[in-house]
Amino acid sequence: MSDILALKSHPRDGRGSRAAQKLRKSGRIPAVVYGHKEAPAHIALELEEFDRAVRKLHARTFTITVGGKPETVLIKELQWDHLGKEMIHVDLIRVSATERVKVTVPVELRGAPKTMGGGVLDQPFHHLHVECSPLSIPDAIRIDVTNLTLGNPIHVKEIAFPAGVTPLDPPEAVVVHIKLPGAEAVLPEATAAEPEVLTAKKPKEGEDEK
After folding, report:
1. What CATH number has the domain spanning 5-94?
2. pLDDT at residue 185 in the model
3. What CA–CA distance (Å, rounded) separates 176 from 196?
4. How large is the average pLDDT for residues 51-62?
């Protein structure tokens, strides 16, 4: 499960692209905090600290201070530059332990099949949609493929999800299997519900920054 990290936050007054660019040059990333029927709060986070939390620790949920009050927040939308390399803005939503949120979680394969039976490993799903407490979002769903064999795929319904984590993808959807060369690929099926949390949305080129 993801640990709840405490991040430094700073109030900000400037708006628009120029103010955002100036902020980033100072080593910070602009952010907006929404939710819980409170007015949006415009803040800035330390870019290096936030970057490490997202890329290295795969964190989704943080504690920050907004207007002198501690808040637990979840990444709602993370925007990147047009090259998809640099983070330029983040939207955060206020959450509590009593809520449940819908998020996408990466799938990590562990081990290697003992026998391939002349086939190749194919993974139709690299992310899964789940619902859980914002305070217990898994950093990944790990699947052991050591005993995977040809003709016996691993479906969503066969995955052991952490306690309190509910899968939203169709139970019969194939997450990973051994496929014979030339066989038709298994396409991911539609999910039961779209996730509320987006962590890697790239803005259109030329889009104005917040």
Report:
1. 2.40.240.10
2. 63
3. 25
4. 90
